[in-house]
């Protein structure tokens, strides 16, 4: 049975476009994001955000503290309307003290609504944190008739 004790601790939790990991295991997080803007252009773009896929990295850096053993790390996406999508479950293993684990997930997520998404992070059933990601919709109307000026 895993021992939580005092830990694990979150060193970092974010979304980004690219992660570079060098030979020593040191991470460089490139283009950290907290907002996505989806643009739809044309003569009659939809009034509401159409569903669109987006790929990005989810990075969670954890330090053991007193936590030891194998744990289930669960990422539960919560949509702006409060509903949840299917969770992603990964294994995290802690050896104690300053040792930790960098968890990098290649996300391919379909955004269906405009608004604030929360990616809730659980270790077994203990909530560690929530990561916000705002989705905005930008309509660009091209080739629309210009109003005739009053003369």
Account of the 3D structure:
This protein has 151 residues and is mainly beta. The protein has strands at 9-21, 27-33, 35-42, 52-78, 88-111, 115-123, 126-141. It starts with 8 loop residues before the first strand and ends in a 10-residue tail after the last strand.
Give a short summary of the structure:
This protein is mostly beta strands.
Quick tags:
single chain, 151 residues, seven-stranded mixed β-sheet, Immunoglobulin-like, mainly beta
Secondary-structure blueprint:
Blueprint: E1 9-21, E2 27-33, E3 35-42, E4 52-78, E5 88-111, E6 115-123, E7 126-141
Parallel strand pairs: 3-7
Antiparallel strand pairs: 1-2, 1-4, 4-5, 4-6, 6-7
Beta strands, count:
7
The low-pLDDT segments are none
Note the quaternary state here.
single chain
| CATH architecture classification | Sandwich
What is the CATH T-level topology? Immunoglobulin-like
Helix content: under 10%
Structural class: mainly beta
Approximate shape: elongated
CATH superfamily: Macroglobulin (MG2) domain
Total tally of structural domains: 1
Measured by DSSP, the beta-strand proportion falls in over 45%
Average pLDDT metric: 92
Number of helices: 0
Q: N-to-C SSE series? A: EEEEEEE
What is the CATH C level class, in words? Mainly Beta
Radius of gyration: 20 Å
């Amino acid at each position: 049975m895993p021992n939580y004790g005092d830990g694990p601790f979150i060193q970092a939790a974010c979304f980004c476009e690219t992660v570079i990991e060098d030979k020593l295991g040191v991470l460089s997080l490139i283009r950290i994001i907290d907002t996505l803007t989806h643009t739809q252009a044309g003569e009659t773009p939809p009034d509401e955000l159409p569903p669109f896929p987006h790929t990005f990295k989810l990075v969670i850096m954890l330090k053991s503290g007193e936590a030891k053993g194998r744990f289930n790390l669960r990422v539960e996406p919560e949509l702006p309307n409060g509903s949840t999508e299917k969770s992603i479950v990964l294994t995290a293993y802690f050896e104690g003290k300053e040792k930790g684990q960098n968890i990098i997930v290649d996300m391919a997520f379909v955004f269906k609504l405009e608004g604030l998404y929360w990616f809730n992070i659980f270790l077994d059933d203990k909530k560690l944190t929530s990561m916000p990601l705002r989705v905005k919709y930008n309509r660009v109307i091209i080739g629309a008739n210009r109003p005739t000026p009053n003369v």
